[in-house]
Amino acid sequence: MAEEKFEFRHKSVLLRECIDNLNINPDGIYVDGTMGGAGHSFHIAGRLSDKGRLIAIDQDKDAIEAGQERLSNYGDRVTIVRSNYSFMKEIVRGMDIDGVDGILHDLGVSSYQLDNPQRGFTYREEDAPLDMRMDDRMAVTAKDIVNDYTENELRKIIKNYGEDKFAPQI
């Protein structure tokens, strides 16, 4: 059976509200820290002049490919960086930029990641790998964590990151 090809489609959450509240200055500098399918980025870039700039960051290679395609018409106005938004400060400073006019983060898992069983986020597919990496350059998968971490380490992860009071029972 051939592997199903998944297209990175994305419907931006609260698109109008986000774009309107960024109060985009056409000559400004903006950062989309979680580019994903480039829905928000596309609309930010579309409001920029030739002097404006968008820095779009994502760690997911599939998002990078989708974003490059969707934002290709904006040329030098857009810089796409494959990284984690936690490095935003270093990324921006590395471009000799001292400050930005606005920052957007649309946090969470995308429908693309959930729908594509090879990404390992879905529970709908019985034989899907347990991967769950946002960035496939990272060595450790969810399978590694579940199978190799101690019960105490798993409990701490569930309690601290999942904020689940039933971590000991889980």
Q: Which consecutive residue ranges, at least 5 long each, have pLDDT under 50?
A: none
- Overall body shape: elongated
- β-sheet strand percentage: 5-15%
Radius of gyration (CA) equals 18 Å
Structural class: alpha/beta
Largest sheet: 4 strands, parallel
What topology, given as strand order, has the largest sheet?
3-2-1-4
Helix proportion of residues, in percent? 25-40%
- Discrete helix count: 7
Quote the average pLDDT: 90
**What distance separates the N and C termini?**
36 Å
SSE order in H/E notation?
HEHEHEHEHHH
How would you describe this structure to a colleague?
This protein is α/β, with parallel strands linked by helices and 170 residues long. It is built from seven helices and four strands. The protein has helices at 15-22, 39-46, 61-70, 88-94, 111-115, 142-148, 151-160, and strands at residues 29-32, 53-58, 78-82, 102-104. A four-stranded parallel sheet has the order 3-2-1-4, with helices on both faces. The model has no long low-confidence stretch (mean pLDDT 90).
